[in-house]
Amino acid sequence: MLQSLKPLAGLFATAALALAAMPALAQDKYPSRPIHLVVGFPPGGSNDIVARILAPKLGEFIGASVVVENRPGANAIIGTDYVARAAPDGYTITLGSASPLAISPHTYSNMPFDPLKDLVGITTVAQTPELIAVNPKVPAKTLQELVALSKTRDVTFSSSGNGGLPHLAIELLKIASKGRIVHVPYKGAGPAITDAVGGHVDGIIVDLPALYTMVNEGKLRAIAVTNTHRADVMKDVPTSAEGGLPSVLAFNWFAVMAPAKTPKPIVDKLYKALVQTVQSPDVKASLEKLGIEPYAQSSPEAFAKFMQTELVRWGDVARASGARAD
After folding, report:
1. Domain boundaries in the chain?
2. Could you give the CA distance from residue 321 to residue 311 in angstroms, rounded to a whole number?
3. Fold (topology level) of 129-225
4. Of 30, 35, 49, 141, which has fewest CB within 10 angstroms of its CB?
């Protein structure tokens, strides 16, 4: 009887070895089907623009088509959570940004995911500063003049909504200036810009690309970019540091994340292809003409450290200002 079971035991052992080898084989063949790049915001916003510039070239370097999929809602929390719950096989990834990944954990009471535990970071791919702009009728042409004005009356600033990067940038301005800066949230950047142009609020702070055309047409006056260096598309606009408020540092970064437990070989393949994509001359040109800079990390591990730093920094701002999204 024991003798007759030996062939079966051999078969079971062979099957077990084959099953154990399957994940490795799947990683070696990755990718073998389209990759879905989820964007947690509606079409037309900064995240969507960056994703659609990157997707075709990323597809070339990774060896599979990359499909941009919009899943908007709750400041990108819905789309990001969808990716966090997806199979960790590299076929569902997200292009996230500062708001859902580093700010929302501090401004929402019930986050459905932990950005450090439920997602694995691959790399940042681009960055753009926030732009402080005012209606041309506002009697302030510099950041110093804007601060002085805010000491005499309320100065209202619109944002794309509660709890996101523009909101926190406004709170940073309020803390640093010690002025009467009033945040006016809107449901999206579009209506926030419309009311700033119409003079219903004094000014606005959102991603630079969203305001670029309005500034060029003279419908808004650029006051400062909230970064450590000037933007190439607006070289005449000083930084917040040059305007005397170096602590008003708020740039939006865009990063690709995958579900936690995505195998390291797949993460490494995505990282290599993303860096190649960001360094591609045509991708760089497409980003830079919109006021967006290519911005890749030296490794996925370096990105993990960057994420931790950003979570701490924006957590401090959220607590100091009391900013909430809900």
Report:
1. 35-128+252-321, 129-225
2. 15
3. D-Maltodextrin-Binding Protein; domain 2 (3.40.190)
4. 141
Query: What is d(CA 101, CA 115) in angstroms, rounded to the nearest whole number?
Result: 6
For residues 281 and 270, what is the distance between their CA atoms, to the nearest angstrom?
Answer: 19
Class of domain 35-128+252-321: alpha beta
Other residues' Cβ atoms within 10 Å of the Cβ of residue 97: 30
Residues 249-307: pLDDT tens digits?
A: 999 999 999 999 999 999 999 999 999 999 999 999 999 998 899 999 999 999 999 99
Q: What is the pTM of this model?
A: 0.83
In this predicted model, which residue has the larger pLDDT, 74 or 238? 238
Partners of 255 in the β-ladder: 96, 124
The predicted-structure confidence for 37-75, as pLDDT tens digits, reads as follows 999 988 877 899 999 999 999 999 999 999 999 999 888
Which positions ≥6 away from 141 have C-beta within 8 Å? 221, 223
